[in-house]
Amino acid sequence: MTLAKPELDTIKHTLTSTDAQPAPGSGVLVTVTGSLAVDNAFDKPLPFAETFGLQPIPGQSGGFFVHNQIFRLIFS
Description:
Layout: E1 11-23, E2 27-38, E3 46-56, E4 64-73
Antiparallel strand pairs: 1-2, 2-3, 3-4
């Protein structure tokens, strides 16, 4: 039996919600939820949740970098 595996050629993302709040050190904590549709499985989107921290880049006004990140696909 051969199992088909996704090629990940096409990924369509849809955002459901985005929330942000101030964090220590002039940072921003961001949470995003939505769904990903992989390859031709657009009728079976995979829900996801992602949380990441943004911190200012020292010496670069208005610049931020991702300090840490949590990404979770939700399988049901």
